[in-house]
Write a structure and sequence with these properties.
Layout: H1 2-6, E1 13-18, E2 24-30, H2 33-41, H3 49-57, E3 60-65, H4 69-83, E4 98-105, E5 108-114, E6 124-129, H5 133-146, H6 162-165, H7 177-194, H8 199-213, H9 217-244, E7 248-254, E8 259-266, E9 269-277, H10 283-297, H11 314-325, E10 331-334, H12 345-358, H13 360-363
Antiparallel strand pairs: 1-2, 1-3, 4-5, 4-6, 7-8, 7-10, 8-9
Length: 364
């Protein structure tokens, strides 16, 4: 093991930890394989119990080098889904991911959790969410309590529920105006998740601020916890919305002073990747090479429109979305209407601007 660790390259890649029977028990990724793997075995007294247990079972090691950290993330995700190592909890079982569902029950639309998207009912679905079911349930409970819509009645017979006496239900169980108020909040909740109106979220943030200003720290903490819980849900909806639009994404990454790597991405998949030596190539020649790949892999007939993002897609979608957010402008979105004629000046202009801005040193 010491010899294997010492011989690891200081480059991006994936490492696979094995037990005494040769079974893969953990898959990880890093932009520096040698440094990351060494960290498991050095200064182990400070490691949490889970890491110490993992290390005690490691008897062999395998690694796979990638050109970029982004590729290491994607490879790690695929290997975890395929191999399901015992020490990898995330990405191992997409069927455990959950959905938020708004469906009619006993005369009121209720916010619930579902294990799968039925697809043939009148309910409104959001997700899938990769956090545990318990975490999503707690987020929704916190939201409903903050908005006073956590009615505990299952049958509305004019009697107040227990949560009404606790100040967690505004009285939908009693009927009247409270039902209209409840329906308005549900409409705004749906709009918040589908991205059309974030006012409900902003209102909760303002309520937190007002509570803090009047020194009602208990109320402020309640609104703060609710906002933080919703942050995760809203972020996931942004990922799902972005991926569901089936965008054509061109990504450029600098490998060294002579080479860049091109990625063509659609939805949650890397359709094509290529290392290109650009030293002395000239920007127009580079643009022509990239355009050729774009028209081959993003052609109008290549990929029929897809449906909503599935549980099997969401992990890769998250990796791609997060990568683009921190890629410092090294990507370009290609609208479908640009991929009609190779003479379309839009692609040339955008590629010229983005490549010249990002790789001006190499291309000069």
């Amino acid at each position: 093991m010491k010899e294997k660790i010492q011989s690891l390259p200081s480059s991006p890649g994936v490492y696979l930890m094995k037990d005494s029977l040769g079974g893969i028990i953990y898959v990880g990724k890093s932009k520096n394989l040698k440094k990351r793997v060494q960290s498991y075995f050095y200064h182990s007294n400070s490691h949490p119990k889970k890491i110490k247990t993992l290390v005690s079972h490691i008897k062999d090691l395998e690694h796979r080098v990638t050109d970029t950290e982004f590729e290491a993330f994607m490879l790690e995700c695929r290997l975890i889904q395929e191999l399901k190592p015992m020490y990898n909890k995330k990405m191992k079982n997409p069927l455990a991911y959950t959905y938020i569902v708004i469906k009619m029950r006993n005369g009121l639309r209720r916010i619930e959790i579902a294990s799968e998207h039925a697809g043939n009912d009148d309910a409104v679905y959001f997700g899938p969410y990769t956090a545990s079911r318990h975490s999503v349930e707690r987020a929704l409970q916190s939201f409903q309590e903050c908005c006073q819509i956590a009615c505990s009645s299952t049958v509305f017979n004019g009697s107040a529920c227990l949560n009404h006496s606790l100040g967690l239900c505004r009285g939908m169980c009693l009927g009247g105006e409270a039902v209209n108020e409840y329906n308005e909040i549900i409409d705004r909740f749906i709009a918040m998740l589908d991205g059309s109106d974030r006012s409900l979220y902003e209102e909760m943030r303002r309520s937190m601020q007002r509570a803090a200003e009047r020194y009602d720290f208990e109320a402020a903490a309640k609104f703060r916890d609710c906002s933080e819980a919703l942050d995760y849900i809203l972020m996931k909806e942004e990922v799902i919305g972005f991926t569901g639009e089936d965008r054509n994404i061109v990504v450029f990454e600098e490998l060294d002073e002579d080479r860049i790597k091109l990625f063509l991405i659609k939805r949650n998949r890397i359709l094509y990747s290529e290392k290109i030596n650009v030293r002395g190539l000239g920007i127009q020649s580079l643009i022509n090479n990239i355009k050729k790949s774009i028209f081959i892999h993003f052609g109008a007939d290549s990929h029929p429109p897809s449906g909503g993002v599935t549980r099997e897609e969401v992990d890769e979608a998250q990796i791609i979305y997060s990568y683009l957010q921190r890629s410092d402008g090294r990507y370009l979105l290609i609208p479908g209407e640009w991929i009609v004629s190779e003479d379309d000046p839009e692609i040339d202009g955008e590629l010229h601007a983005r490549l010249g801005e990002t790789f001006s040193t190499i291309l000069s």
